[in-house]
Amino acid sequence: MSDLQVSLEVPGRVHAAFAAERGDVIAVIGPNGAGKSSMVKAIAGLVPATGSVLLDGTDLVTRPTRERGLGVVFQDQLLFPHLDARRNVAFGPRARGLAKAAALARADAWLERLGVADLAERRPGQLSGGQAQRVAIARALATEPDLLLLDEPMSGLDVGVATALRIELAAHLAEFGGISVLVTHDAIDALTVANRVLVLDRGAVVQDGTPDEVSQRPATDHVARLVGLNVVHRERSLLAFPPSAVTLSLGEPEGSARLRWHGEVGRVTTHGGAVRVVVRTAGTGPELIADVTPAAATELGLVPGRAVWASTKETSVRAYDEPRR
Ligand SMILES: Nc1ncnc2c1ncn2[C@@H]1O[C@H](COP(=O)(O)OP(=O)(O)OP(=O)(O)O)[C@@H](O)[C@H]1O
């Protein structure tokens, strides 16, 4: 039996099941409203749910939040405003029975590890967003939980701050012996920090795999976009191909070994040295992304509304079965 077995229903919002082993770092991704936050909050006991959350065989679902023994880093319940950083971090170990001096010493050690030891005396109101997030992570890890839940821990941080914190967080989570569940909007978080990725869509788990599996064979359009691929359906298969493998032309492309779609140019942006063009295909066809050279974009007159053909070689396409739901 797995160390963690979750099977939860939040009526109308989530009906999801997954299992995890100690040491797993699971990224939960999916579009807005997919139920990611609701699922982790239900695991924490902050959203009413039915089902079970078996941690080492014990069902937590009937216990109040504070008796679940979890570490949480949630946007809307970060730090106690009236306690300084050190006391915020010492709070959990104290509540679990550690003597005051030992709890404060543990807090200092965690603040040191998160690089914020010099801020120990500050209250949350005197910390920047990134500093507060480091203290919140220290607070969650200081309780040495078996299960750590993080909901968008990098959101709202500057890119530079988020990058530094992501690298450190990856190291802390890898070292932490428990199970981490990390909700994120960011493909980089999912692919670099986690060893498993759960894709949620409309409240259900639609894909569960390693970062490689999910990024090479995305099961949903949302994940395909996150990892920068086009995905189209063909019968029961999915076909994935990168924007750089898409050719745009004004006339219908020749040759049988090409997949082709007729459509019109949508948004046009720059992407690295290329011009990134969204092509809205006709009817219920897919929305495709093509990266073309600036010269080609000029020659074809790629402005929004222009009718174009998008095509790709069969050999550029990775075909795989649609994951079973
Ligand atoms: N407090 C609430 N009461 C009722 N419905 C809610 C509540 N919070 C969220 N929902 C609904 O539940 C569904 C899942 O929302 P949730 O916030 O869990 O998704 P999410 O995947 O975390 O989204 P996001 O990426 O936008 O944060 C949505 O349809 C949302 O409107």
Automatic annotation (TrEMBL):
SUPFAM superfamilies reported in the protein's UniProt record: MOP-like (SSF50331), P-loop containing nucleoside triphosphate hydrolases (SSF52540)
Signal peptide stretch = none
Q: Name one GO molecular function term.
A: ATP hydrolysis activity
The record's keywords, sorted A to Z, are: ATP-binding, Molybdenum, Nucleotide-binding, Transport
Q: Does the keyword Nucleotide-binding apply?
A: yes
Pfam families, per database record:
ABC_tran, TOBE
Q: Give residue ranges for domain ABC transporter.
A: 1-227
Q: Where is the Mop domain?
A: 254-321
Q: Is Signal tagged as a keyword?
A: no
Q: Which InterPro entries match?
A: AAA+_ATPase, ABC_SmlMolc_Importer, ABC_transporter-like_ATP-bd, ABC_transporter-like_CS, Mo/tungstate-bd_C_term_dom, Mop_domain, P-loop_NTPase, Transp-assoc_OB_typ1
Q: Which GO terms describe its biological process?
A: molybdate ion transport
Report what the protein is called: Molybdopterin-binding protein
Q: Which organism is it from?
A: Nocardioides daedukensis
